[in-house]
């Protein structure tokens, strides 16, 4: 490092004094909420509805034209 | 069964025990980059969530602290990338130099602004190497890169800061 680099380092240390690194509360409840919230995923009945829709369209393709007419 | 092995198998009780052990360290690691307690808490929760989500990638017997620190560092880098420096300018108006005391304040604001405008990866490397004076080996492990790459990032950060600060007259241009 040059002297100038040392000046930059000193200037940065003055501009960014140490912060309080103490965690003030337990974050586990928030982590647990996130864990449950995201792991729930798509409910089974939504998957069932999607499957029924796809099968119906495959069995009766002309239904799409009926739907398109009413849109 | 070993706590870490239970964690990798998805045991939530084991994860809870681990969270209570590591949350303080992760928060302390993240706040040095973001310097805001509220944001640091949010990022710590997100980091812990990512640690759980990535549990199968952790090899039992490996360096758990280093692995979690790398996840936290990547999250802090993502945050710094998303954050616009202009937001900070609104929150902290730049003072004008009128007296010796204010010159110090003015310089500090200019240095902070120039630092926050650095690319996120350079900011993180420079924070650890220049402000915290951490060993390059430790920084390389936290960033998941080599010591050479860390030195290059710090060198680039110093070069950019030198140019910006001399452009605005805060510090005189120095030799490389």
Tell me the layout of helices and strands:
The complex is a heterodimer of chains A (71) and B (176).
Chain A: H1 3-15, H2 28-39, H3 44-59, H4 63-70
Chain B: H1 3-8, H2 12-34, H3 37-53, H4 64-82, H5 85-91, H6 100-116, H7 120-131, H8 136-143, H9 147-167
Helix pairs in contact in B: 2-3, 2-4, 3-4, 4-7, 6-9, 7-9, 8-9
Number of helical segments with 4 or more residues of chain B:
9
How are helices and strands ordered from N to C of chain A? HHHH
- Low-confidence spans of chain B: pLDDT under 50, at least 5 residues? 89-103
Report the β-strand fraction of chain B as a percent range: under 5%
Anisotropy-based shape of chain A: elongated
Beta-strand segment tally of chain A:
0
**How many angstroms does the end-to-end distance of chain A come to?**
70 Å
Beta-strand percent range of chain A: under 5%
* Proper CATH architecture of the largest domain in chain B: Orthogonal Bundle
Chains forming the largest contact: A-B, 29 and 37 residues
Q: What is the rounded Rg of chain A?
A: 30 Å
Low-confidence stretches of chain A: none
Mean pLDDT of chain B: 86
Structural class of chain B: mainly alpha
* Envelope shape of chain B: elongated
CATH class of the largest domain in chain B: Mainly Alpha
Helical fraction of chain B: over 70%
- Under CATH, the topology of the largest domain in chain B can be stated as Arc Repressor Mutant, subunit A
Distance between the termini of chain B: 56 Å
Number of domains of chain B: 2
The count of DSSP E runs of length 2 or more, i.e. the number of strands of chain B, is: 0
Entry keywords:
heterodimer; A: 71 residues; mainly alpha; 4 helices; 0% strand; elongated; B: 176 residues; Rna Polymerase Sigma Factor, Chain: A; Arc Repressor Mutant, subunit A; 2 domains; 74% helix
């Amino acid at each position: 490092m040059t002297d100038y680099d040392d000046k930059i380092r000193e200037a940065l240390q003055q501009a960014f004094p140490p912060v309080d690194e103490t965690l003030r509360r337990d974050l586990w409840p928030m982590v647990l909420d996130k864990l449950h919230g995201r792991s729930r995923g798509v409910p089974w009945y939504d998957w069932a509805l999607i499957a029924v829709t796809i099968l119906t369209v495959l069995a009766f393709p002309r239904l799409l034209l009926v739907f398109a007419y009413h849109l | 069964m070993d706590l870490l092995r239970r964690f990798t198998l998805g045991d939530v009780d084991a994860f809870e025990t681990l969270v209570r052990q590591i949350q303080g360290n992760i928060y302390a690691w993240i706040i040095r980059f973001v310097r805001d307690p509220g944001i640091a808490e949010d990022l710590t929760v997100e980091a812990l969530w990512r640690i759980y989500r990535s549990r199968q990638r952790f090899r039992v017997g490996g360096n758990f602290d280093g692995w979690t620190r790398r996840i936290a560092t990547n999250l802090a880098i993502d945050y710094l990338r998303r954050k616009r420096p202009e937001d900070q300018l609104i929150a902290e108006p730049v003072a004008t130099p009128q007296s010796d005391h204010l010159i110090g304040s003015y310089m500090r604001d200019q240095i902070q602004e120039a630092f926050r405008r650095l690319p996120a990866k350079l900011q993180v490397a420079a924070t650890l190497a220049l402000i915290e004076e951490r060993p390059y080996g430790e920084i390389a492990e936290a960033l998941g890169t080599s010591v050479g790459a860390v030195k290059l990032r710090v060198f680039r950060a110093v070069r950019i800061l030198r140019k910006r600060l001399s452009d605005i007259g805060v510090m005189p241009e120095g030799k490389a």
